[in-house]
Amino acid sequence: MTAVAAEAAPAEPVARTKPFAAFEWTLALRYLRARRARGFVSVIAGFSFLGIMLGVATLIVVMSVMNGFHKELLDKIVGINGHIFVQAADGPMTDYADLADRIAKVKGVAMALPMTEDAAGISSPYSQTGALVRGIREQDLTRLPGVAGKIVTGTLKGFDTSDEDRPLGVAIGRRTADRLSVRVGDNVSILTARGAQTPFGVAPRIKSYPVRAIFSMGMAEFDGLFVYMPLQEAQAFFNKEGQVSTIEVFVDNPDKVDEIRPRIEAVAGRPVIMTDWRQSNETFFNALKVERNVMFIILTLIVLVAALNIISGLIMLVRDKSHDIAILRTMGATKYSVMRVFLITGTSIGVAGTIAGCVLGLLLAHNLEVIREILNRLLHADLFPAEIYFLSRLPSVVDPREVAVVVVMTLVLSVLASLYPAWRAASLDPVEALRYE
């Protein structure tokens, strides 16, 4: 009876290992280390690690530079040109002073600046170039974001006033000053084709003005284009007595111009035509956005290729370790335990590469301008010419949300790349693997 009872007694259940047990981690990390004659798998793992690291770092750096370009160009272009442009629709804008005061009191408006704007030629005894001459009041010029605080030499004090010893002058950009080889106190001549009306037609007008101030906006195109002149002098010079071309409105939040435009129209008291910074620069910023998205897709392919290397490396590792897998299975390791071992192996490459790439990318993104200056000195070249890229420095703005997206995307790709080789390892038949041993 005892023997029968012993035979009839149910077998004790086999104890299952806990998921991601210590031995699974130990095996996974050992598989990543090179073995004398079988180190090729570890070489592939190393290349996968480098690919993921470089892909993540490149993505972070490029996205940071694109963000920097967007922010700097938006600040420079919008900061110097305003957010909303108000023009008269029913005749010359001669009531600009009262209209600007009414607009400035609108909720959400920071300031409203009346201006005249005309193309002209500007020359010195040494050179000549084209310019966009803006007539503006001194009180407004000292508040203009692109000019206020950006004066390199000279001063804007007394910009609107003159006497016998101190005639009215102009403020020019640093690139214009360099091109004309002038400095503060030197005279420049401004030429317009729309001068005095004569019996024979419109005669060109040319007049000499001393340079009162030289500014640097940080954007090469603007530093070589804009010339600021006292408003009343500009009105007289361009035959626009008592009128302005536009009122440039600066708002507290550029993204809320749609809310502010009806308020401005309500207080205008006359028909006006309004355009905003999005309409004026729509093509430019759309092109920048498309370029940014395309760069993200292209650089993501680097990470994808590195993830494919993980797949090939793990498949080779499974083939190389088929004997070990069979022994583990006969010793009681479950399919899921084997699968977790190889999942840990592949994911470890992705996690290590992602962390290293994130650290490297952030270090490079925060020190791009320093790196550029060092490379310029070493190579004796200008790697970021302002004439081509509009900006005088290499901008970089790290967006934590984008960094998080890059990190999460890379980790997900690493896990997905590890799933198929891990499944193949778990599906290996121990009998077939040990048949010829």
**Average predicted confidence as pLDDT:** 81
Low confidence ranges: 1-15
Number of helices: 17
End-to-end distance, in Å?
43 Å
- Main sheet: strand order: 2-3-10-5-9-6
Give the DSSP E fraction (strand runs of 2 or more residues).
Answer: 15-25%
What does the largest sheet look like?
A: 6 strands, mixed, barrel
Task: Describe this protein's structure.
The structure is a single chain. The protein has 437 residues and is of the alpha+beta class. The chain has 2 domains: 205 residues, no CATH class; 180 residues, no CATH class. 54% of the residues lie in helices and 17% in strands. It has a 6-stranded mixed barrel with strand order 2-3-10-5-9-6. The protein has a two-stranded antiparallel sheet with strand order 7-8. A hairpin with a 2-residue loop joins strand 7 and strand 8. The chain is elongated and about 110 Å long. The N terminus is likely disordered.
Compact description:
The protein is of the alpha+beta class and 437 residues long.
Outline the fold blueprint:
Elements: H1 2-8, H2 22-32, H3 40-81, E1 84-88, H4 96-104, E2 109-123, E3 128-136, H5 138-141, E4 151-154, E5 170-173, H6 174-180, E6 187-192, E7 197-198, E8 201-202, E9 205-215, H7 220-223, E10 226-230, H8 231-237, E11 246-251, H9 257-268, E12 272-276, H10 277-280, H11 282-320, H12 322-330, H13 335-366, H14 368-379, H15 386-389, H16 400-426, H17 430-434
Parallel strand pairs: 3-10, 5-9
Antiparallel strand pairs: 1-11, 1-12, 2-3, 2-6, 2-11, 4-9, 5-10, 6-9, 7-8
Helix pairs in contact: 2-13, 3-11, 3-13, 3-16, 11-13, 11-16, 13-16
